Amino acid sequence: MNFKDIKQIYDAHIIPSYARQEVCFVRGEGVRLWDTEGNEYLDFGSGFGVNSVGHAHPEWVSAVNRQAAMLAHTSNLYYTGPAGFLAERLCQISGLRQVFFANSGAEANEGLIKLARKYSADKYNDPKRHKIVTLRQSFHGRTHTTLAATGQDAFHAHFQPLTGGFVHAPAEDIDLLRALGSDICAVLLEPVQGEGGIIPLSAGYLQNVSALCKERDWLLMCDEVQAGIARTGPWFSFQESGILPDALSFAKGIAGGLPLGGFIAGEKALDTLTPGLHATTFGGNPICCAAALATLDILEAEQPTVAERGEYVREKLLSMNLPAIREVRGRGLMLGISVKVDPKAAQKKMLQQGLACLTAGADAVRLLPPLVISKTDLDKGLDIIQNVLRKGGSL
Predict the structure, then answer these.
(1) Which of 30, 90, 189, 266 is exposed most, by the fewest CB atoms within 10 A?
(2) Whether residue 321 sits in one domain with residue 205
(3) For 31-57, how does the pLDDT look when each residue is reduced to its tens digit (9 = 90+)?
(4) Based on the number of CB atoms within 10 Å of its own CB, is 136 exposed (0-12), middle (13-18) or buried (19 or more)?
């Protein structure tokens, strides 16, 4: 197998909806990847934050193999141990009460939207009370409805008319939220905006939104798809601000590489979605849930030091004093380097030098390394970043 042959197959048979980098990875171990030519890379993207415990972690591999040999799938018409144990664990670390398992972040956010509208319909019986507030620069998924929820016009092109019922508000403007009318039923926000550029929301703003939602009986829903599961330090990023949402969505890093997502509802929204109102074929899959339980076990040892390692990366980047770096945003190991050069050009150059990373928003090189990464490997990646960004305008 070589890169040229794989690329020809892709070009012939896969819809070209991605602008792929010119590399085919064939193997991963820890925080490293290898391509078809045997070249080695540090993985600072983690598959968009999915590979939270790195590649081929032995405890994770063992859990997946063990479950695959016992039971791969039934359906949600039956009970399985892995889904039950995982739901219990997620409720313990989030402070919420009931879990619905899905397959992705977009699916999870679709579920939150249905949860909010059903809660409002049950309690108020007012068809006008259905709108959900999301924020400018937000990203909530690529299904038709989560695209409508996403507060970035660039994602809306070509897909009009979008699903109605969303209000896009600027972040940090609590007075604008207070001025909204009686047709609102919920607020959906990312405590750290991911695709919008790695932009953390302030604790004060989140606390004010939480208080307003309680006052108006709006559901407060946190999109933790990218920032959750210890990515920013705590298990969920909302926990840094001292609030407790009525519901949250999760996905990406939860199962360490397998497709799993879902949402967790708190006390206010308990039993809102009753039999027949929401469903999924693969949600709660035993192998994925076993992988997630192993992932949480591994991350228990890493989670206390994620914020410290993130601050270490931030300080090292700023100490480089590179003209190309405007600022470093984010929390924990969810960081965006705002650059004065083309971030996609910088990303490409870093890949050529052995570092796989991402971009976010209009100006940021995005770093989402596995949460098991050592300071030694962080330093190796930072050396590549420094070497590339030192060139500045010559990228």
Answers:
(1) 30
(2) no
(3) 999 999 999 999 999 999 999 999 999
(4) middle
**CA–CA separation, 19 and 256 (whole Å):** 24
Q: 317 with 287, same domain?
A: no
Select from 212, 148, 137 the least CA-distant residue to 180.
Answer: 212
Residue 169 contacts residue 175 (beta carbons within 8 Å): no
- By the 10 Å C-beta count (0-12 exposed, 13-18 middle, 19+ buried), 125 is classed as exposed
* 248 and 291 belong to one structural domain: yes
Last residue of a domain, one of 302, 335, 369: 302
> What does residue 199 show for φ and ψ, rounded to 5 degrees?
-120, 105
Domain count, the chain: 2
Q: What are phi and psi of 101, to 5 degrees?
A: -95, 135
Each residue's pLDDT tens digit, 248-268: 999 999 999 999 999 999 999
Domain encompassing residue 356: 3-56+303-394
Q: Are 291 and 254 in contact (CB under 8 A)?
A: no
Tell me, yes or no, whether 157 and 115 share the same domain: yes
Q: Which of 244, 267, 302 is the last residue of a domain?
A: 302
Lowest mean pLDDT among 83-87, 273-277, 295-299, 389-393: 389-393
Task: Please state the pTM of the whole predicted model.
Answer: 0.97
Dig out the tokens for 30 from the structure: 């820890």
